[in-house]
Each structure stands twice: as C-alpha cells, then as structure tokens.
Give the backbone structure.
Amino acid sequence: MLVGVPKEIKNREYRVGLTPASVRELIMNGHEVIVQHNAGFEIGFSNEMYEAVGATIIETAAEIFAKADMIVKVKEPQPVECEMLRPGQILYTYLHLAPDPVQTQGLIKSGAIAIAYETVTDDFGGLPLLAPMSEVAGRMSIQAGAHALEMSQGGRGMLLGGVPGVAPAKVAIIGGGVVGTNAARMAVGMGADVTILDRSIRRMQQLDDIFKGSVKTVYSTQDAVEEAVLTSDLTVGAVLIPGAAAPKLVTREMISRMPRGSVLVDVAIDQGGCFETSKATTHEEPTYNVDGVVHYCVANMPGGVARTSTLALNNATLPHAVAIANKGWKQALKDDKHLLEGLNVCEGKITYEAVARDQNLDYVPALEVIGA
Ligand SMILES: NC(=O)c1ccc[n+]([C@@H]2O[C@H](COP(=O)([O-])OP(=O)(O)OC[C@H]3O[C@@H](n4cnc5c(N)ncnc54)[C@H](O)[C@@H]3O)[C@@H](O)[C@H]2O)c1
C-alpha cells in the first residue's frame, strides 16, 4: 500500500502522523511511504531522517492526497483537505466529528473511508488512541500550574515542593482518571501535597494502591470540592463524563473566595471546562486572571509538547496503521472489533451511531458496510 503523510495545516499544529521510526516499520512490512516536505521539521524529524528510512519526500499536499492509498494524519481534515480526499481512499486520524457538521459533510462527499483515532476501543473499556494525549495533558498540567504559581505569571510565588523548613504547595486534582493520575504522578514527584477527588470508589481504591499513601483521595461532593479549592494553591480540573459536557463543579462564587494568586488548570476545557470561569485559551496566551486567580485553560495542551505527543501517539496508532496497510481496510476491520469502532464514515455513509444521531443523519452500522 502507498501511505501518505501530509504536513498538518491547522493553526500551530506541529505534530505529524508518522515518525521516521513508524515509517520504517511500514516499509519493513512491504509498503511505500510518501511524506510531505518538512512535515516533521519543527519537532526534529527532518526530510533526511524520513529519506534515510526509505520514505520519498513530496513537495505538496495535493500530490500526497492524489497518490496515497491511505492518508495518516493527526488533526481532523480541514475543508481544503476534505476536498482532496478521493473515493476509496483511507483516512486515519483524529476526527471528532459529532460537533462538526461541515467536516462530516466533507467526508461524506469525499467517498473516503475515515477511521477516527478517538473512537477506537480496547479490551479494557478504554480509548487507547486518546489515552496518550490525556497522559501528556495530565503531566503537563502540573508543569503549567507550577509555572503559573510564579510571581511573574500572577501566581502566589510558591514552589510546588517547598524547601526544607517550608511546607510544599497544596495541589487538588478533581477527577482521578488518565489525566488526573498523570497529574498526580508529576505533583508527587515535585514534592507537592496532593489530594485527588473522584466519584468512583473503585477508582479511588486503585489510586490508593498506585500511590501507596503519597496522595489523599476524597469522594467528590460539592462540599469536598469547595474545601479542596479553597485550601489549595493549585487545582487541576480533570473530570470526564463520557459523551457529556464537563460539569461546572467549581462556581464563580467559590473562585472569588480563593486566595489571590492561586492557580486553576482546567484540562477538561475541551469538554467545556469544570470551573464556571473557564474559557478556552491557546499556547500563545495560555492564562488569564479572574478575581486574582490565575486560569490556565489551553484546549490543545499536547500541541505544546508536539514532539513527545507525536511519539506517544505513534506508539498507539502504528499497530493499527500496519494492520490496515497489510490487510486492506475491510479485512483489518473484520479482524479487529476495536478498530472497527473507529470507522466513522465509509464511502459516503455515517457508520458511527453517535455522529449520525447528533447530526440527524442516516446511520449504517459499520458491520454492514464491511459485509460481516
Ligand atoms: N485540554 C487538553 O488538551 C486535553 C487533553 C487530553 C484530555 N483532555 C480532557 O481531560 C478530561 C479528562 O480526561 P481523562 O482521559 O482523564 O478521562 P477519564 O475518563 O480517564 O477520567 C475522568 C475521571 O473523572 C471522574 N469524575 C466524573 N465526574 C466527577 C466528579 N463530579 N467529581 C470528580 N471526579 C469525577 C471519573 O470518575 C473519572 O475517573 C476530558 O475532558 C478530556 O477530554 C483535555
């Protein structure tokens, strides 16, 4: 199969669909790979590195889309990319289609086979192609929060770990899932005093086991959230209710009573955020101030560490990319019910129920289109 990797064109997106190491794996499996000029340049993957593993560098995206059997990307295709997709061509990338009718119509019109990273499942009930980005965002939330606590950023002027004779900062993490656990790891590592709030007793038992007493777990009631927020120097919002907007667990009134220079990092901002005062920010201007409280609400945190994110994403996406290239999309989907969950649009039909429902479109089960 001829696999194509265009350069990402979404504003400030530096990740790339395939690393040189991933390209090498595909070539080792007997495939050909074409990579757009400078697709990975900003994150240290030069044209020469791709050529060294056997890829061919191509100048334009148009040529990549015209030639490749499968396009491997990171972000959802922009309108100009949707127009370049061809009937029968495979698109393997993040799509996030449910709230995006323009892209949905673009993909339907293209006749392409669009497999979305974010809906591929695993045996443990997780979303393995989404998890790496939650790991990145969770770890980054503490790095960002620690920076925001510095005077120059409007923070309280506190070091997370304190020093001998000075108590460490208090960190509250609301939501102990993938983001929350990774945030806790970093905060504990930096010597902070860490509390995780969650609603799942099972999850808190697991966290108690993982952290062996180095974090406190608290059942998340309104009362507990209020106490945690008012007594913490840094609060990380990491809740998720699948398929729903994030609940506004921290009210504006609570925030007005927080000490000046406290920091809120709302990782759940991509689902609307769990602090009432949250609004999405970008890496160019990541923070703003409400009632003296610093807010960090970057909606695409992994983009800030695009190299780490690309490597982490490739670890999760590569095995499926190889399977699709080796077997062809239909057989790969027939053989793997978890990959089949990733099929969102196929040759003009919506094959993912939630997308069809949210946009009032006809739904054709994925099993039907693969003839299984
Ligand atoms: N901003 C970014 O760049 C970025 C990147 C990755 C993920 N995210 C977002 O981070 C959020 C968390 O993702 P995740 O992968 O950790 O999800 P997850 O499902 O692994 O964890 C969510 C946790 O929230 C808990 N929870 C639900 N309601 C709660 C409540 N009322 N109080 C306390 N805990 C509650 C759940 O029990 C679960 O443990 C999601 O909204 C995700 O989209 C954002």
